[in-house]
Amino acid sequence: MLTLDHHPSGRHFLQIPGPSPVPDRILRAMSLPTIDHRGPEFGALGLKVLAGLKQVFQTEHPVVVYPASGTGAWEAALANVCSPGDQLLMVETGHFATLWKKLAERLGLQPEFITLPGTCAQTGLPNAWRHGVPAERIAERLKADTGHAIKAVCVVHNETSTGVTSDIAAVRRAIDAAGHPALLMVDSISGLASAEFRHDAWGVDVTVSGSQKGLMLPPGISFNALSPKALAAARTATLPKAFWAWDEIVEMNQSGYWPYTPNTNLLYGLHEALDMILGQGLDVIFARHQRWAAGVRAAVQAWGLPIQCADPAVYSPVLTGVVTPEGVDADALRKLIHTRFDLSLGTGLGKVKGRMFRIGHLGDCNDLTLMAALSGCEMGLKLAGVPLAGSGVAAAIAHFAAHPAPTAG
Amino acid sequence: MLTLDHHPSGRHFLQIPGPSPVPDRILRAMSLPTIDHRGPEFGALGLKVLAGLKQVFQTEHPVVVYPASGTGAWEAALANVCSPGDQLLMVETGHFATLWKKLAERLGLQPEFITLPGTCAQTGLPNAWRHGVPAERIAERLKADTGHAIKAVCVVHNETSTGVTSDIAAVRRAIDAAGHPALLMVDSISGLASAEFRHDAWGVDVTVSGSQKGLMLPPGISFNALSPKALAAARTATLPKAFWAWDEIVEMNQSGYWPYTPNTNLLYGLHEALDMILGQGLDVIFARHQRWAAGVRAAVQAWGLPIQCADPAVYSPVLTGVVTPEGVDADALRKLIHTRFDLSLGTGLGKVKGRMFRIGHLGDCNDLTLMAALSGCEMGLKLAGVPLAGSGVAAAIAHFAAHPAPTAG
Amino acid sequence: MLTLDHHPSGRHFLQIPGPSPVPDRILRAMSLPTIDHRGPEFGALGLKVLAGLKQVFQTEHPVVVYPASGTGAWEAALANVCSPGDQLLMVETGHFATLWKKLAERLGLQPEFITLPGTCAQTGLPNAWRHGVPAERIAERLKADTGHAIKAVCVVHNETSTGVTSDIAAVRRAIDAAGHPALLMVDSISGLASAEFRHDAWGVDVTVSGSQKGLMLPPGISFNALSPKALAAARTATLPKAFWAWDEIVEMNQSGYWPYTPNTNLLYGLHEALDMILGQGLDVIFARHQRWAAGVRAAVQAWGLPIQCADPAVYSPVLTGVVTPEGVDADALRKLIHTRFDLSLGTGLGKVKGRMFRIGHLGDCNDLTLMAALSGCEMGLKLAGVPLAGSGVAAAIAHFAAHPAPTAG
Amino acid sequence: MLTLDHHPSGRHFLQIPGPSPVPDRILRAMSLPTIDHRGPEFGALGLKVLAGLKQVFQTEHPVVVYPASGTGAWEAALANVCSPGDQLLMVETGHFATLWKKLAERLGLQPEFITLPGTCAQTGLPNAWRHGVPAERIAERLKADTGHAIKAVCVVHNETSTGVTSDIAAVRRAIDAAGHPALLMVDSISGLASAEFRHDAWGVDVTVSGSQKGLMLPPGISFNALSPKALAAARTATLPKAFWAWDEIVEMNQSGYWPYTPNTNLLYGLHEALDMILGQGLDVIFARHQRWAAGVRAAVQAWGLPIQCADPAVYSPVLTGVVTPEGVDADALRKLIHTRFDLSLGTGLGKVKGRMFRIGHLGDCNDLTLMAALSGCEMGLKLAGVPLAGSGVAAAIAHFAAHPAPTAG
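Above: the input entities. Below: the structure tokens describing the complete assembly.
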């Protein structure tokens, strides 16, 4: 029988930036018996989760739910609005922006990649992987596209590989300033329900998201939130699509059902997650993540290690990238911490592999969980011989004691 | 908090032909905490389930696991081996064969549909929806395709909408007899792990399957089992593909990981399912389903109602379609049984809607579960005023008492 | 890791008269993390379950909850109100009445046993084990006790070993008619929450009950519901008592706590059970059990086997004892049914061992669960070669189809 | 439906000295369906847990399992070997020793209480509540009892109210040195399976224990481990006993069953606990607790607060009592920490109420759990305005980083 107990005692601390720790309440809901996805109980469940999702995305328009993980929702977004050879404008903010671009290329599209040039003198890391989306460069590029060949601007809201949360409203303003008809497509897989996100108010046409981050579910469900403009674009786009096609799903969803077998037990979990999230209020949740992030950054700064995000205006409330000194293999450090203290930290991905690790502070956490994680990091850094300027744990204690958690109302 | 208790007391009986009842042991495994899909524990899990799946598909070649439901695996099969405009030979065996054909059309392919003509005098139902795949007609058609324009023959192994299990080995023989290079692609979504299926021995190139039937999992994982010929075809096929692309998945799977976030908690469930299935042995499981099916058919015959499958050679071991007398709305009957006896039966789909219901006898069942289901049907039929020739329950009791269950060794 | 899966497929059918099948909702509640039994959350839980219990016992007076199984509550009832050597009047209604008498003897009390003499011509079983409490004989005996030496009358409400539910109000009337001050102590371990029971209205002084029957919990909690007269008697009784002593418990309970560590996780389950039971209403639940019992008796009568309870006025709604023909070993039959059909039936206890089996129809059941159980019995009886007059299953189908389940309001 | 989520996010930290945190694996086992306690599966389970318990108690003699919480096992130990009016020699080591003495008095026994006189100058606390059992005073008293009127010596192994673990082998030596036939009865409710304990080797006659500490179960099961001498004494003792009587239980246990309904689902949990504990080995577990205790004491000492246990030779590996400065209400501090950081700490009991809190470090813990708990304490102490000599968290980090956890083999 399956056991995941690889340490002799106690609970694992999962502090990667997703999958985030799943609350017991959600795990329990997911273990309810599977029911008939064509029966009346299922329809009622479907309507309820679809209504709740709109509140989380802050939209009045349809949210499409896929029984698939997040990469599928990236593909779905593109497959529904694009035709073969369409041009896209994308921005290199890190590993996931890069993967989305590669996916677009595999679909036969032509993405153009805006990149901040150069590397950082302090850390040696690429500047593009330490900053947010430069809205002004998007505006410039769109203004130059007088023929309106660019079909969509695609950006990542919260770059999970770097800990940078870009200003999406600014991207919308840039597109509008350029008077360009491009769609705005946003990956908020790791931002949704943790970092502020407003699909309608920010003028997003397609938001791509997933279950395993702020929604506190296991991976396996993903989303496309749509605008009327995106729905209109889908009607004429010619990339082949079937599983991902919005039209049948949106229509069937009106009665709470799906055109093909949905992900029953993950939808049970989604039901619970929505209950928990909407019961507390999104603003309380956003403030909670900001407070956690500030405490974790206080620790990193006390250690004297660089925070990967170089621009305080776009620090992520969801995760913090910690750059290790040259010569310290961040993955060897992570392995030591995992083996010794039963704590999982996020690995460095792509261009920053081995040079950083990521501390997730999202979802089902609390102050003491983060104190545990920071303690594990500090012990690991010491054991790895990394010289520290001071105690990050002490700094976090000072922060969390001084700042009470936000509460509703 | 989510509750699915719509009846005041007792357990729901889920006797639809999938999702099948999920064993508690699997539901529990699925509710273990989500872990880091890039950590060492995950890699070990990945290797174990991939090895187990090969045994279930009876193949030595790769089995690709998608974090997506079954319709996705249909699309994946086609997207990997086809190029735009490719011709396919498909067979109308029922609703799911029809849906797969429509999906092929949406992808820009050209499926040709072999159909058994006419309707049945006794029931008024289409003959095509009461019989299996006519291998000889496939042979004929392929022989006529001297230019080898047909890329693949696509058939459904166990038609979930009709209760017909076609002879796949015969289809392979037909292709070979025609000397045609077409790939053989088989949907065994509802056949795998309940009805005998041999991917390698039967010369299947792509088997499409899913989690929510014989594997006794909730929906949300699906599969493509591959042959070397299919893998070769994928290298030159030009339909755009990214999420579904086999190449990266097969490569990453060698170390137990996936190129994008896998469906962690459903993989926990899959681990348990494989343990349970391989621990008993496939042959015992196949025999068990055959015995259940015979008991259920004995009941239907005693009631004097037609079994939807008109050909005893291809009776499904997984489900039995029961045709209601003209004038009796099968869905009203199902609703009555659901309301009164907390029993879910499968609805009639597509061309047989309202004229039949389906009794699932697969997965986590036993004799008494089926006796409960047949009792619910018999009470419902009586309450609906359907004249019965005799007691199906008595016939099933006679059958199950007379035939001991198969055991291993 | 623990597994209870002794059959290769499907769920076990537990149709013994307790422990009854525990609803998933209760099992899940019981698996919530254990909390501090001195913390504020616990106090709130304590107050809630204590209030709910009063409703189930239909009393306005204290209900004492023991972290112990039912035998402990028998002892508690006696230990609190008796002094060494006290006389008790008890009635032999079956195995559990006999065990309670033996327990009284071990405590140094002097129970007198009223017994219906003789054996039944048809079945050879003792008459006392086929009938209810004879209230008139209690009245007689008490009238003869002019010195009021008898401290208490102790009777079993629902005899789990025989399927007889005695008339408790009649016993109270008998005591009153005799003008006797004896306390009325009632074991309703298997009656509470399934068969009608009214602690206050029926003038019961101590009701003993347990968790694993109508409350649908696992064993491990038991109860003493008290009257003011019982509380007064406890103040002067001199049997040594500490763990069982009501005084400290009743006092601490006022704030929702217990003087020693309570049974935290079973109390979680009790919370759920009370929610489920009181949400439906006791009268609906009582009617539901009566209907099930009538269906099961219809089956037994159709088989032509004697129902153990010889008096239709006191048929138990909770269980039905089935007497096997002489020469048929009821335990061998039970074993055959368990092995072949994964169905547990109750064994014959004490004086009826080997001559009967018991079908439980209580708690988390429904019509189809009982049809499954009756099917298993009928198949087992056939396989054991027991000649049957007819089909019990057919009789039960006729009964359940003809009688809709009771609903609230 | 029951929810225990009183904080908006994250898991509760339960760091009281019992109930200890229950591993998920045990909670899951406990939620398996309840089975027939007279069926064959149950008998096999019974034999397995009874054998495992002997290993944990380090005895070759019977261990009696009660479906009752620990106070019941205290009563059982006395009720089986004592006769009315028997003299006992007990030692005031704290709150639980005092409660056991009161229980003995309620049973009509005559306990004599050895007490270390005076109060501590530094803390104002009673000396008796800061030290272990003084074996030499027991020896003296027994030597003076030349008539051998004292039936038993009763001591607490690990005083949960003080964090003192007494030397039980020394007590046995004292009894032997006095040449006295008194039985040695030991409460190791909170010691068993966390602190070294050897029933046979240390010559204990009755060990009383419970489920909710080192065995990592919820409360509800308790134990009496017996010696042949205790079994012999029970044959002639005359206190009334029924529920607690060893004789029937020991006899029925030979086949894996109990004379009355056992605590099925807690026994499932016990099965898992034994698997986990014996799989690791007791010595590894004892060393693990010693290491944790040393880390926690390093923190308390760094804060400059007195450890309640005044004698380093008897520091408890299970919990550490922390004495708060005069004027600081320890319960107000605990409440602040609970409210703000979702951490439960143990309250001061009896004579030390309000003057101390207890940190549990037992059962399903690990280094990071303790770091979280110590961080919560340190933040709470700061917020309560308690002046600290230094950072306890920093001291614990230094300790845990410097000392690797013990491993088997």
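Note for the figure: The domain at 24-280 of chain B is CATH 3.40.640.10 (Aspartate Aminotransferase; domain 2).
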